[in-house]
């Protein structure tokens, strides 16, 4: 089967970010999406710690110690960007003002539930951050994740086994094998990468997929 | 006459007692009152509840309060970050209590406390483990969780500039949780890089009005 690299996955998702969107990119693979949004589209990136208009990494030596993104990396502010406090930042999410959130995922269920903040390892301290607010609040939630775990276990399932982040929140899942849309009828494959067949992808998925329409 | 300026970090944190809940502003390394935290570490109070988005990392800031065993409980949204060794060690030992909540709920609970609300219904967390045991309600077809106000005896916050009336302006994304914490605590202490004369702050740039601030102290360059 053809497996796309994280960069290729981010590049594929970036094609679906429309001009004029307000977008929040989650920590990890999702932040790479910004590198691949096609030229000519004006996209405003939101960071949960209080920034609209997140710009690229600063030149070495010009970092502002307070100007960091949600992953705590130094960033810049684009022209027209602005700052606000955390309460306002999350009002933007919950209030439905943010167009798209791109999140990582441990598991997605057939009915669009997302698990991406905790595993079943009780010894490991849980951390939730802004994941629940984003999943519930953004108008559209895209999940960017590998199709299976490192051990080959399915991550798209009838029901999530890990603690949920949000219920019925996921619109699409972009994996290294395919793009899957969560529809009222169930998860539907809308794109297969390379020579991957529907049967190949179904075989590593823990729920029944619907074929491309 | 109103003059909230305090001469030293040591005096600025006077009155914090063992067992108190202390809000500490900042996100990651941004907008953190490092000098007030150091003064709190040397102050002598223990059994503290620290209310802050993160639980400190490496050997600076909140991590030093944990390392010195001054903290019995952490209230936050994201305790685990790169280098959060002291929190992880104490969590594994069972030496620290953790109250975890979504970040937006965390901020809004403090705004509710500061704004005199008895709580609010949020869709965040509905149907998840973090809503277990909480009152829920369906409003216009959407499920919500009742969240209560979050208060504290003290808030230690960080701003860029402040005046003697306690008006504060922040540097870039250093604002984060500082304004809501200023509202929510009984006593709010602001560490600032510069104390300026009344009238020097553009009124439009004041992100925390002085009414929410009790003490203002200039950085001493100690941390």
Describe the 3D structure.
The complex is a heterodimer of chains A (213) and B (223). By secondary structure, chain A is an alpha/beta fold. Chain A has helices at residues 6-14, 86-94, 131-137, 198-203, and strands at 22-25, 44-47, 51-55, 76-83, 100-103, 107-109, 114-115, 140-144, 156-157, 172-174, 178-183, 186-192. Chain A is globular and about 50 Å long. The two termini of chain A are 22 Å apart. The model of chain A has no long low-confidence stretch (mean pLDDT 96). In chain B, a hairpin with a 2-residue loop joins β7 (136-139) and β8 (142-147). The model of chain B has no long low-confidence stretch (mean pLDDT 97). The interface between A and B is large, with 41 and 48 residues. Chain A: This is Succinyl-CoA:3-ketoacid-coenzyme A transferase 1. Chain A: Pfam families: CoA_trans.
- Helix fraction of chain B? 10-25%
What percent of residues of chain B are in strands? 25-35%
Strand percentage of chain A, roughly? 15-25%
Give the helices and strands of chain B as they follow along the chain: EHEHEHEHEHEEEEEHEE
- Count of strand segments of chain B: 12
N- and C-termini, Cα separation of chain A: 22 Å
**What number is the mean pLDDT of chain B?**
97
Can you write the helix and strand succession of chain A as a string?
Answer: HEEEEHEEEHEEEEEH
Structural class of chain A: alpha/beta
Helix content of chain A: 10-25%
Briefly note the structural class of the backbone of chain B.
alpha/beta
Low-confidence stretches of chain B: none
How would you summarize what this structure contains?
Chain A has helices spanning 6-14, 86-94, 131-137, 198-203; strands at residues 22-25, 44-47, 51-55, 76-83, 100-103, 107-109, 114-115, 140-144, 156-157, 172-174, 178-183, 186-192.
Helix-strand blueprint:
The complex is a heterodimer of chains A (213) and B (223).
Chain A: H1 6-14, E1 22-25, E2 44-47, E3 51-55, E4 76-83, H2 86-94, E5 100-103, E6 107-109, E7 114-115, H3 131-137, E8 140-144, E9 156-157, E10 172-174, E11 178-183, E12 186-192, H4 198-203
Parallel strand pairs in A: 1-2, 1-5, 5-8, 6-9, 8-10
Antiparallel strand pairs in A: 2-3, 3-4, 6-7, 10-11, 11-12
Helix pairs in contact in A: 2-3
Chain B: E1 5-6, H1 9-12, E2 21-24, H2 34-43, E3 48-51, H3 62-67, E4 71-76, H4 85-93, E5 97-100, H5 103-114, E6 120-122, E7 136-139, E8 142-147, E9 152-162, E10 168-169, H6 178-184, E11 185-195, E12 215-218
Parallel strand pairs in B: 1-12, 2-3, 2-9, 3-4, 4-5, 9-11, 11-12
Antiparallel strand pairs in B: 6-8, 7-8, 9-10
InterPro entries (chain A): 3-oxoacid_CoA-transf_B (IPR012791), CoA_trans_fam_I (IPR004165), NagB/RpiA_transferase-like (IPR037171)
Protein name (chain A): Succinyl-CoA:3-ketoacid-coenzyme A transferase 1
Organism (chain A): Salinisphaera dokdonensis CL-ES53
